[in-house]
From TrEMBL:
Gene3D superfamilies the UniProt entry points to: HUPs (3.40.50.620)
Organism: Sphingomonas sediminicola
Domain UspA: 1-139
SUPFAM superfamilies cross-referenced by the UniProt entry: Adenine nucleotide alpha hydrolases-like (SSF52402)
Family: Belongs to the universal stress protein A family.
Signal peptide: none
The protein, known as: Universal stress protein
Amino acid sequence: MFKRILMAVDLKRPESWEKALPVVQSLAHCYSSEVTLCAIATAAEAVETGEWWPNSYQERIAEKYSELDEIAARMRDGIKVHVEVGTGTVDSGLIDVAERIGADLIVLSPHHYSMLDRLLPTHSGGLSRNAGCSVLVLRPGKEQQAT
């Protein structure tokens, strides 16, 4: 059913993907799927860090690949795992990578919700509307939700 699973990883927020990792591993074992872990190097990060120079941006992308490799090593127990770093906005970057690898499923965990999220669209909402494949949003448990 799912031969290629793309898992979104926010490297700044481990809590956003640590609980999703076992779910993705289970799905991969169940369907004999390949998994691609994907982080996005956004323009907003370049602004935050003041690293607009191409060399600095390339270094940032290389760092993300390295961090993703460390996460991938945790799940390579009989699973073929790849890593990708997309660019652009989170939504467009994930969709581009999903299309490039032929993903059947995108898995992500949303961040903590706040009042601002009621006014602005979330990444999970944008992905579910615009992705050409299924999107699985793993909701946090009640103990993780913002009050």
